[in-house]
Amino acid sequence: MEIPQELPDRVEALLARRCCDAVGLARRAGLAVAGFERVNEAVRRGDAALLLLALDGAGASRNRLAGPARDIASAAVLSADELSAAFARERVVFVAVGRGSLSSRLLLDLRRLAGFRPAATLTGGIDVAPVAPGRQDGTEKA
């Protein structure tokens, strides 16, 4: 059996699309906000369960949220263009996603996508170990 050379690129593109679709769904459900001020407000109120930072965003701008968001999981896996497409806005660098099953599923997919993007970072005590075959929720078989 031959594996096509473009398979990893295709899987990465599909995972990125799945993540962007989940961010868009969270936005439409009122669970996600974008922009530094709105994200900072969500962090201060305790409404944020997951912070998404643009992979290609400036490091200095990421550090502005480092203090208030130190106890919140964060992921720099999607590009600003991908986050912008999910919000139908010009340039999105910061996104906060609220608690719930949607943010858990998004985090799992971001972990998978990070395996294809060497510059991607996941912080906040997130276990980035590979998911066991056959399990979609990140738990081990009993």
Q: Topology, pairings included?
A:
Blueprint: H1 7-28, E1 32-34, H2 36-45, E2 50-53, H3 59-63, E3 73-76, H4 80-87, E4 94-97, H5 101-114, E5 121-123
Parallel strand pairs: 2-3
Antiparallel strand pairs: 1-4, 2-4, 3-5
Helix pairs in contact: 1-4, 1-5
Q: Which strand order does the major sheet show? A: 1-4-2-3-5
- Contiguous uncertain segments of 5+ residues: 125-134
Count of helical segments? 5
Number of E strands: 5
> How can the largest sheet be summarized?
5 strands, mixed
| Overall outline | globular
Q: Compute the separation of the termini in Å.
A: 32 Å
CATH class value: Alpha Beta
Write down the overall mean pLDDT.
84
Please state the CA-atom Rg, rounded to the nearest Å: 15 Å
CATH homologous superfamily heading: Ribosomal protein L30/S12
Provide the succession of SSEs. Answer: HEHEHEHEHE
Secondary structure class reads: alpha+beta
- CATH architecture label name: 2-Layer Sandwich
Task: Report the β-strand fraction as a percent range.
Answer: 5-15%
The number of domains is 1
**Approximate helicity band:** 40-55%
